[in-house]
Amino acid sequence: MIKQLKKHAYLALLLPSLLISVSIVVIPGIQTVYSSLTDWNGFAAKKTFIGLQNYARLFQDPYFRIALKNNLIWMLLFLTVPVAMGMAMALLLLHRRRSRNLLQMIFLIPYVLAPVVTAMIFKNIIYSPTSGFLHFLNELNQGLSLKNPLTNKDFGIIAVAAVDMWHFWSYLMIIYLAALRQTPQDQVEAAQLDGASFPQLFRHVYLPNIKPTAALMSIMIVIFSFLAFDYVNLLTQGGPAHYTEVLATLAYTKAFSERRIGMASAISVVMSAFGLIASILYTRLTIREERD
Question: Is residue 32 over pLDDT 80?
């Protein structure tokens, strides 16, 4: 009887969260999937069911291919540059006691800045060839003639991603530093007594202990990479000529500029599919590690 009461108590405590999740995640998700199978402008009372036509048109759209390519580039950049920067700085701060907290606060400043502030700093101060840092370099060396990288069709997406990486890397540093500090000190001391160098210490002691955290952050980076929107929208709006377009900005354009809600929903479903795949991979890795 007591066990049954406890079980009902647990269910009662879970019910509010479950209802919220169903209301704001499951139901809108089902509606988005259904909308992706229709032709709807967002105003008509009735949605016209057209099956998979939106998906067929989508994969024939050259702008969709550009956006998908840019999201993949974004993912690869974020899985390497900010991860390496965050890990390197976490290792440097690990054994600093006096200045660790101060340095963490300083490095976290870009992360706590509003995206619009960060975007304006880079757009008007760093990347501007008429009034910013590039202008200073051009004036310093008349032969340079550097141009705004945001307008370059080949490197524009990298320039936008660099702004987000500058904002994001310190967050990874804090996560990795917290994980590194959880490493059992007796393992570290035993390795040091055996004469392990710092690379060996990191590879054989620290890395195995922070592997779950590193794996989780990698999966989160994959998911966030396919949700990238704010910095692209603030800096380039997907231009020039859609060369910095990502899936989220393309879906925004389809929904609010072209009034093609079905097509925008199809793009959203594709974005969600990548996040779902990443989540499944992480779950399988977690289950495998628990079994081992």
Answer: yes
